[in-house]
From TrEMBL:
Source organism phylogeny: unclassified sequences, metagenomes, ecological metagenomes
Name recorded for this polypeptide: Sporulation sigma factor SigG
Domain RNA polymerase sigma-70 positions: 4-17
Protein source organism: mine drainage metagenome
BP GO terms, sorted: DNA-templated transcription initiation
Gene3D superfamilies in the record: 1.20.120.1810, 1.20.140.160
Keyword field: DNA-binding, Sigma factor, Transcription, Transcription regulation
Length: 164
């Protein structure tokens, strides 16, 4: 990971060298440092396993900061409703934002191992009724349908479910 960041920083340095204009009367370091930092930030943002919008990520980090402030002020763990109230946001939005920044786990992550065969996450979510990954397709389909507007949903329902 550190090697990757070093290489990305070097790419930022090369871009700074290529784009630096001597006629601007600015020190090279003044120009290069933001370029290098920007390249590293872009790498960290774009190479997460799940793409999370900036506004959602910002809300999640504000919620974490609000949580810490409320713990200090109240002397106990605040509820999500209290955090949302502190931020002036909806409770559902805060929950969604906090869920979005959680690190995903692999389906093949062992959750139990006593010296014998380990039990994996996929073993716990598998369903005998759906075979060959149909459940994964179902999740993908539901997510895709959720992103459609009402008209697009109606067209797909008429075409594939109502037979029109």
């Amino acid at each position: 990971f550190v090697d990757d960041l070093f290489q990305v920083g070097c790419i930022g340095l090369i871009k700074a060298i290529d784009n630096f204009d001597l006629g601007q009367n600015v020190k090279f370091s003044t120009y290069a440092v933001p370029m290098i930092i920007g390249e590293i930030r872009r790498y960290l943002r774009d190479n997460n396993p799940i793409r999370v919008s900036r506004s959602l990520r910002d809300l999640a980090y504000k919620a974490l900061q609000a949580r810490d402030a409320l713990v200090a002020r109240l002397g106990r763990e605040p509820s999500v409703k209290e955090i949302a109230g502190d931020l002036g946001a909806e409770t559902d939005e805060v929950v969604y934002a906090l869920d979005a920044i959680q690190e995903p786990i692999s389906l093949f992550e062992p959750i139990y191992h006593d010296g014998g065969d380990p039990i994996y996450v996929v073993d716990q979510v598998a369903d005998d009724k759906t075979q060959d990954g149909q459940w994964l397709e179902g999740i993908a389909l539901k997510e895709a349908m959720r992103r459609l507007n009402d008209r697009e949903k109606m067209i797909l329902n008429l075409r594939f479910f109502d037979g029109k």
